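Hey, resending since the last one bounced:
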Amino acid sequence: MPYSLSYGGVFIDCKEVIANYWNFRSSTYKNGINGFDEEERAVWKQIFENSLASGKRLKVLDVGTGTGFLALLFAEMGHEVSGIDLSEGMLEKARHNADNMGLEISLFHGDAENLPFEDCSFDLVVNKYLLWTLQEPASAVREWKRVLKPGGMIFAIDGNWFDPRPDRYIKRMLYGLAERFAKKNQYNLIFKKSYDPIRNSLPLYEKISPKNISFLFSETGLMNTEISPLLEVQKFQRNRHSFSRRIFENNSIFLISGQKN
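The structure tokens again:
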């Protein structure tokens, strides 16, 4: 799949569009309900501690690290962590967050679909809310598998953000109207302006689901695929959502893991 396309006769570089949008969002984006809220981080830590062998220090790669939410969480847990992102603005925010938290992580500017790391470099590859925004998700997963050591794991976290089914679409529309009426979520229109021209080039944009990611993992040769609905995280987040979001939003997040044979 090419990295560029024509939209209304205008040549568009998809990677540049994505990087520019997240550069713009980097100053205000919160990866989580309250960004780096300690209670929310504790919920996530418990999930990962239950999924990993205890007592072993891992080499972890956070792909599409953004503001460093996962990278810093795993660093807090005692692991050696690297993060990579297409957005320089997000990387700057991650550096700032690392300094504020007194944590050390290695950060790299690069592409999730073409990693600048050697084969068999990491024990664990993680990402959060990334797969839906990739042009070549299968190529990305193969890259993540390449840099894993034998027996290493991939943890992919995502949600059904743009489910096209009519009931889900109507709820999203109502939520958007409620937020606009309350003069919240002013980034919605900017997001649409950025992503609408390229959405058809993103295979998982409207098809992100546990079933489709599980198939993707199996197709790329990952073994022992498991799905977690992240019920503890969803419960925590619902309790802190705005009233309109609790009523109208119907996104459900999930974690899918797979292992390199």
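The radius of gyration is 18 Å.

Sorry for the duplicate.
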